[in-house]
Write a structure and sequence with these properties.
The structure is a single chain. The chain is of the alpha/beta class. The protein has one domain (4-122): Cytidine Deaminase, domain 2 (3-Layer(aba) Sandwich), CATH 3.40.140. Helix content is 25%, strand content 39%. It has three helices and seven strands; from the N terminus they run βαββαβαβββ. Strands 1-7-6-5-4-2-3 form a seven-stranded mixed β-sheet, sandwiched between helices. The two termini are 21 Å apart.
Length: 135
Amino acid sequence: MPDKLIIPSEMVDVMRAHIQRSIPEEACGILGGNGNLVKCVIPVTNELHSPLKFRMAPEEQYKAFTWLENKAYDMLGYYHSHPVGPAFPSETDLRQFSYPGVVIVLLSPENSTWKIKGFIIRDNAIEEVDIENSI
């Protein structure tokens, strides 16, 4: 499990644009790549259309996993926004967590931008992961 996730600035831009388009709902998607370098961001529809929780649309999720496999990319993480909350996993996030070994990337509003934080869940404990987006 990575202790750092590298997300190039153009990938951060894709996430932020998706989040802006999704307001007031939580946005969500999948991060793919190799090692700890994110090479693609795949926005997925939040089928709950809620500002407080998300569930990725299963058909889009399946297509994303197939695309990643065809590109020989791993699922490094997934992202979602907390448009009205902090950049920290909620109780709902913890209860519904289903991807051991991947980084949860959370984006929440701070001043005039979206703050980005990463987390790994191990043995029901939340550990912060460094997010580097300076590439």
